Prior knowledge:
Structural class: alpha/beta
Amino acid sequence: MATAAMYKPSSSLLQMVATDPMPQVGAGGAGGFTATNSENRRVVPEDARGRPTMKVVYVVLESQYQSSMTEAVKRMNAGNDNMAVECVGYLLEELRNDDAYEQFQKDVADANIFIGSLIFIQELAEKVIDVVKPQRDNLDAVLMFPSMPEVMRLNKVGNFSMKNLGQSKSVIGDFMKKKKQEDGSSFEEGMLKLLRTLPKVLKFLPSDKAADARTFMMSFQYWLGGSPQNLESLLTMVGQDYVGDIKDKMVGKEKMEVVEPVLLPDKAIWHPVAPSVVFETNKDYFDWYNNEFCPDAGIDAKTAPTVGLILQKSHINTADDTHYVSLIAELESRGAKVVSIYSGGLDFSGPVEEYFYDAAGKPVVDTVINLTGFALVGGPASQDHKKAAAVLKKLNRPYLCAVPLVFQSFEEWQASELGLHPVQVALQVSLPEIDGAIEPIIYAGREGATGRSIPLADRVNLLADRALKWSTLKSKPNKEKNIAITIFSFPPDKGNVGTAAYLDVFDSIKAVLEELKSQGYDVGDAPMDKEAIMESVLNDPEAKISSPELNVAYRMNTEEYYDLTPYAKDLEENWGPAPGNLNSDGQNLVVYGKKFGNVFIGVQPTFGYEGDPMRLLFAKSASPHHGFAAYYTYLEKIFKADAVLHFGTHGSLEFMPGKQVGMSGTCYPDRLINSLPSAYLYAANNPSEATIAKRRSYSATVSYLTPPAENAGLYKGLKELKELISSYQGLRENEGRGPAIVNSIVSTSYTCNLDKDVDLPDLETYDSKNDTQENRDDIVGKIYAQIMAIESRLLPCGLHTVGVPPTAEEAVATLVNIAQLDRPEDDIEGLPRVIAASVGRDINDVYKGNNLGVLDDVELNEKIVNASRAAVAALVNQSTDGNGRVKEVKNAFDELGSMLGGMLGQKKVWTQAIINAGFPNVSEERLAPVVAYMEFCLKQIVANNELGGIMELLNGDFLMPAPGGDPIRNPEVLPTGRNMHALDPSSIPTTAAVEVAQDVVRKLLEKLEEQNGEYPESIAFTLWGTDNIKTYGESLAQVLALVGVRPVADSLGRVNKVELIPLEELGRPRVDVVVSCSGVFRDLFINQMNLMDRGIKMAAEADEPIEQNFVRKHAMEQAEEMNISLRDAAARVFSNSAGSYSANVGLAIENGGWEDESQLQDQFLTRKGFAFNADKPGMMEQQADLFKNALKTVDVTFQNLDSSEISITDVSHYYDSDPTKVVQGLRDDKKKPMSLMADTTTANAQVRTLSETVRLDARTKLLNPKFYEGMLSTGYEGVREIQKRLRNTMGWSATAGEVDNFVFEDANSVFIEDAEMQQRLLDTNPNAFRDMVTTFLEANGRGYWETSEENIERLQELYAEVEDRIEGI
């Protein structure tokens, strides 16, 4: 290709490419990110030649103005006879550094002109205001270009100011407001439109003000122009009109004629070697490009794929465009065409609509890469995500948003374990994801001394490769595409192949294969039957014949492996030379799976260190093993996949070591996935880990529904208890029968082990005949409340199959849960509140009485629950077809029907259902908002696009974005089958989350004070990524509330500041916290870790009595003991090292590879002991001693449960991060801390002890026929799901010792003593059943379960029998 040569003339651009790796440097200013030096931007005149010198100080977000400004100033010093210029510039982020900030204050103090632009980061905006505001009157002019309103108010040009901006009336302000209402434009867009209509606006202003306003607007035009000539004109104009010494010097002289701004059009197409600078129509561009450029470059203009690029105009204005040129050259050298567009403002939707379509309205691009790193509409200021997604969906092409480094130099990013700067992650990764963007690949850095952008060679290559792979999916015929479906096996065992949260994996694969076939993909002779697909991958799922091996799809010899895997040698440090003993037959590396036509179903290898106690202890995770690398090498280089579909939540790829966000070429997720487009099916309720998959493994996610949650119901003794209670309600006045029933209730409660949850009278001595009726009611009320808590607990039933929407019955279950919540922000009262009001009660009081076991309130609460259920069922039944499914939702408020019904005095069906349930006075009018909302939600629940979403990605289309989270709290999560994103991290905690958090903290402290007679001094907290997304930051807000600090939102509604609540307002002592953040929380919410750290340090440094401030008390003790500063001793926010996840406690327990509890505790302390420090935000520092010192003061350990789908025995995460026994071991008195859990899964939030929560979970899941029969109905996967709950229950014994003996005893009688059940489990999934037997034996062996010799012997015999069965004997 001739392309590279064509770029030679434009300086030596391509020689400026930075390559990987470069020399490592320290991670910046005292551990900060930005260690660049403003002195590189200082220009002082060599010889003033008697001219007055004007000093200019500027602060900018990005560095592209540096070279233009430096050149402009040098030209003025050389050639302007009236003035000399001294100039210094600062990057906004540099102001975090104390030395730089001090120098900045000195510079502003003796400056004439101050210029600022794009100052949108609250804490730094405040620093700028603190320095400039006191000097504003002394400065000759202050020019603030688009920034936060409070920064813009500093503007001063003669009599022109913006001090009323956003407050009172002003001509310019009104114009801006009107423009915003008309077209939803951002502040900068408004400024640009104002420039265009300036002459009209100026005639409304007095003449002196008009001249000053004109100067400001001209300055803004020069600034936007960005070239050295434009900036020279700006400085000359402001200098001669406003700087006193220069004005005096020029008296009697003629002013220099300031030339008009040299401006590029607001939007256009740009190409680095085009004869004219830009093209304003795509006809002009393609005439030149297709007819002149492509033939010379050897590109076939008719057949070449076309990549659309979105550029930032300021880089073109300032000729800081090397990174753009480099990517364009790479794409063209691969035979692709390029069309590069820019916009003058920060709304790129207009240019996309104008330039990415031909005259007939057909898209001319196959893939789009946004190279600005900003959201499509609104940039860093205010975004319009709905408009962006609509524009992108209309274009319907893959949309990648690559990121240039802004706040770090290339070397700083290279050296940082965290990777991309947190502020940039928030602005340039999180916000574009909400538009639907994928693949945040870093493609450019900046050169420290000049501030110019430089392309990163290997990243530019990767970006070009990936963009063209995505465009191939659009152009290649379906029958020729190779698709790799990747399934997971976790923990590694044959009985676990095809693990995914809540997903029936093989049934879903069947649905996907059918869909692929119907769209013309070649699926060969793939069976369209779940069991047959399973058999082909597993060899023999029944394992009746000896079959420890899965089906082998490919054997890769070591020569081929080393030849095709460029990083294979790097893995030897951890795993020795290939092939090793994982995924290997001793000679070759083995790829497991099965090929059908052009579709390969493969099993992703696991981490490899699950069963190795030494590796589990490492503070940082090991690299992938050779077998893992060989799997992805096979997919890309041998099978030659066009795309890989990762099947379900979740595999190991995205959790491999590497940077947190902004991968480099040495990060393992990047090396493994390399150029493969990846679609990843992820559970809709897990946006946090889905986001990790998006950012670290470059996957586009497709959300799937979790199974609908139903009420757990009652069984056996619990059911009998409820019947006895309802008999008592009818006969409580009857002195003969009433007391007899109470005696039965008490003895049955003991049989059901409820004595652990309710304070029951002594079974031997109690006779209710001798008790008062009030006491009897009290006992029955407390038992009733407990029974209701079990019965109404939500329980996900069965497993979900992709593409199958819920039945009407399942939809009712979800809607009941949606309808119970109040939604004040939408003026919607929950059903229970409206129903309770009809009998003159406030639902909160009913909940309170219910929780205290007041018999009448427990009864009323149950009645309200049943009425709600009846109303929802009535609504859904209107739209249910003969097959029990909802195809089309009928309008609940059908005009004609309503009118006729009203005339006949008929009630709506849902109102009638509530009346029939015993609430005759319910208000139909008050019900209307919640019913309308339920109707909307019902449409969302049944609209399923999961198969459609997968196919859109495989066909190279744009997949619409959607939030992930709990569909009950946020029905916007539905319909599923869309590209899931987390939220804007700077939006949490929301005001509503702060209110809920304060309520939970109040309940928590009340419970502790009631039990212990005093407040706790320190609470150990666990924070999860997903929970904080679902609840918009409730648990984060709980941490802040305990310490007594409140989050404060800035003028754009972003939360990035905290303030101390005065003790008198708080009304209690500040409680110390030790926060253990999950690795996922660390990745998504590093800014919130910053908030917590700042808040906790604020509390530690507050001059308050230590008996009222436990944070200060402990920090002072630790500072003295460890001989460190108070501020360092107040470190309380901990997590894993960057790129590592979990304490590996779950891995050890799931695989049985642990010797004793001390090993688990060491793992927790080693892996979780990395401290976050807001003073050095660029690193997580190993601070194990500080972590131990903080933990040993802990009185209470605390976690949150926030949604019904994931409870404490469903996943290993909760106990993996539980520090209960760790704290016990560290405390001087060796006393076990109390363990508590907040349950906010329903509108009636509660705080329970951990052992109560474990019992509740066991009764509603593991021991509940509704749960285990539901699971067994799905077959192979179901047995594994039951065994997982048992194993996780044992995990709580290991980390907290809070599992009652009866839980194991009852589980043993359900699954092992019952011969018929035993046989079913053995036949359905013998490997998972063997794990179950092992778990029982292990629980006994480790002292967590005391049982009879007979039970243990039976288990040992069973183990031998299952082993023989699996080995085929």
